[in-house]
């Protein structure tokens, strides 16, 4: 399988299936492309030749393309049932899917205001934006409550006990927590720290820091 991803420093959507597959030990070939909005760029041309969306992440398995991070996660869960990428319990599995769907379709303010930027320290920016953007602050509060509830029900160390698709989906938020100094209660903050300590996360983050590829459209708070 080939997994097409964007810049590791910025591409939160790419991080999800990459982290999931790497942590689970699912073999794949990484196909990294430099992010671009330009339809004439190698990024867009390569992806449009494989799928209609023109965006990452994109999984290609024996010539069959699967786009969208949630669709990729479901495809992998079905293809590798022994990996138990969803919780084994039916109710917990439904709850995990609910959380992933909420992350997938919601939290627009959090994503727009606090773009993923692994190599930057934007804690001062984070404090200012939390005061200026109440909807983004509300998203952070919802994340805090969501994580606390899931961890209390499962007993941890991850949202549903063992690492699952749900944790992969919230890993980019764990990165944002560190970049912007987002306020969380002790339970949620400890969880975010555990995710960032995973070997797969560390590998991704180290690669993101090593890119040194400044993309102005992904850096609204810096000029270089």
Folded structure, characterized:
The chain is an alpha+beta fold. The chain folds into two domains: 82 residues, Glutaredoxin (3-Layer(aba) Sandwich); 118 residues, Glutathione S-transferase Yfyf (Class Pi), Chain A, domain 2 (Up-down Bundle), CATH 1.20.1050. It is built from ten helices and four strands. It has a four-stranded mixed beta sheet, covered by helices on one side. Helix 1 packs parallel to helix 3, helix 4 crosses helix 8 and helix 7 crosses helix 9. The longest helix is centred in the middle third of the chain and has 21 residues. The termini are far apart. 38% of the residues are buried. The model has no long low-confidence stretch (mean pLDDT 96).
Fold blueprint:
Elements: E1 2-5, H1 12-24, E2 29-32, H2 42-48, E3 58-61, E4 64-67, H3 69-79, H4 90-105, H5 108-113, H6 123-132, H7 134-154, H8 165-180, H9 186-197, H10 199-211
Parallel strand pairs: 1-2
Antiparallel strand pairs: 1-3, 3-4
Helix pairs in contact: 1-3, 1-8, 1-10, 4-8, 7-9, 8-9
Radius of gyration: 17 Å
Measure the end-to-end span: 36 Å
Tell the overall outline: globular
Determine the number of helices (DSSP H or I, runs of at least 4 residues): 10
Main sheet: strands, sense, barrel = 4 strands, mixed
Helix residue percentage: 55-70%
Number of domains: 2
The assigned CATH architecture of the largest domain is Up-down Bundle
Q: What share of the residues does DSSP label as strand, in percent?
A: 5-15%
In the CATH scheme, what's the topology name of the largest domain?
A: Glutathione S-transferase Yfyf (Class Pi), Chain A, domain 2
* pLDDT < 50 runs, ≥5 residues: none
Note the quaternary state here: single chain
- Highest CATH level, the class of the largest domain: Mainly Alpha
Strand order of the largest sheet: 2-1-3-4
Q: How many beta strands in the DSSP annotation?
A: 4
Order of helices and strands: EHEHEEHHHHHHHH
The structural class is: alpha+beta
The overall average pLDDT, rounded, is: 96
